[in-house]
Structure formats: structure tokens, C-alpha cells
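WARN retry 2 of 3 for item q-0093 after timeout on previous attempt; input resubmitted unchanged.
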Amino acid sequence: MDRRSFLNRATLGALSVFAVGLGQGSLAYLWPNRAGSTGGEVAAGSLDEVLQFFEREGKPLYNAEGRFYLVPYDTSDPSNPYVAAGVAAGGVMALYQRCAHLGCRVPFCESSGWFECPCHGSRYNIAGAVTRDPAATGLSRFRTRIEDGQVVVDTSQPLAAPPGGSFTINQPPAGPFCREEEEGSQHQG
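OK item q-0093 returned
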């Protein structure tokens, strides 16, 4: 084999290896990741312990395994649409951690008692209803049930959230927001 043939074959081989690697990387990026418990049922602890956490800490309980927050929610009215839909049970509701605007993880602000998106400033009350643009809807919910005293959350499919302007509870901020911006400025989406 002459030198030119060798270099042509070596170049084609290297390009082939690069193309296969690029294709596999692209497929891995685009294919949904269902690793771990996300995408299935997550046991989030005993109902008694969750309710005690709410009383003791005064904030939602974050579940990293399922990527959701458990929040206190009045489930005494069986005609409540969230209770009827199975997204609230035993005094708790599970809210997806992702902002409805662009999917950033939304942390809970202890001083205001609301969820505040660090990316674009959307704000959500404790029940996940959006109270500030640019998000058009509230935080998505997951089906929640109580089974043998345990809170079980089905993370396989986030359920639709209430549209903007739908306030499921009347909850003003408890204090200053964690992410204060200039007075009078408001994001528009």
C-alpha cells in the first residue's frame, strides 16, 4: 500500500469514528433520561413525618430523588379540583421543581414564603400558582396518594398547572422576596 492510500484510509477511519461518536452523543442528549426514580413512583416518607416537617420548619419539603416539593394543602373538601384529580391527598400536594417559563429549578424563598425563579423572576405562591410573569402557568403537579401511611408521588407525568391569574389560595407574601428587583419593573413574557 502506498502512502497516499494509507493516509486516505486513516482520514476516512478517523472521520467515521468522529461521526459515530457525534451521532451517539446527539442521541443520548435527545433521548429522555428515565434514570433513578424520576419518571415513576417515589415514596416521599411517612405522612406524619411530612406534616410534622411542615409544622416544625414552616416550609415545603424538597425531594431530590423525585425532583419535586411537597407543600401543605387543605384537602378537607373532596370537591376541590386538585383533591378530585388526585394531585393533593392527606394535606399535601407535590409540585414539580421546574419553572413553567423555561424550566429552571425554582427554589423556595423562606422570607416571602413563595417560590421564586432565579432565571427570569417568575413567582409562585405556596400552592404553585403563578403570581408574576413571565411564566404563563403555575408549577406542574404530580399525582399524590397516601398508601399505608406513606406519601407516594407518581412522577411519570407532570399534570397541567393552573393558568396565570388562577389563585387557588389567598396567600400574600410573608415578607421580602429573595430576589428583589427595581420597584415598578416587571418581566413580560
